[in-house]
Amino acid sequence: MIVFEINTPVREVMVDITDMVMQEIRKSGIVDGACVIFVPHTTAGVTINENADPTVREDIMAALERVIPNMRFKHMEGNSDAHIKASLMGSSVTLIIENGKPLLGTWQGIYFCEFDGPRRRKVYIKFLK
User: Fold this and answer.
1) Measured on CA atoms in the order 20, 30, 37, 34, is the torsion positive or negative?
2) How far is Cα 101 from Cα 29, in angstroms, rounded to an integer?
3) 65-100 as b/e: b if 16+ CB within 10 A
4) Chain CA centroid to CA 66, Å
5) What are the residue ranges spanned by the domains of the chain?
6) Which fold has domain 2-128?
7) What is the pLDDT of residue 29?
8) Tens digit of pLDDT for each residue in 57-101?
9) What integer pLDDT is reported at residue 38 of this predicted model?
């Protein structure tokens, strides 16, 4: 298993981790298999989405903020919105690896989604043969 550490600079941000994952796939030597990318945090997630236009990330974050604003919730830490957003994004994605490359669409990238930063976070990658 591979562990990445990510330092997020602000409360909410989508960090492009595509190149880090691609590098680990190349290093693994796996030709055909899969890889699971898992985020072990309750206020962060991971997703695959558009990687050509950075305004898509901005739109995703703005839409999540409109749908789930940081309002008064019962949870006393003041970050319930982050828990809800992380649940919507999900804690893992699975990539199929074929011919040594992930089967990502032309415009797709992999994003670590921070909703309660700034923090030091972990991302786990596990290869399945």
Assistant:
1) positive
2) 10
3) eeebebeeeeeeeebbbbbbbbeebeeebebebeee
4) 20
5) 2-128
6) Jelly Rolls (2.60.120)
7) 94
8) 999 999 999 999 877 777 777 788 999 999 999 999 999 999 999
9) 98
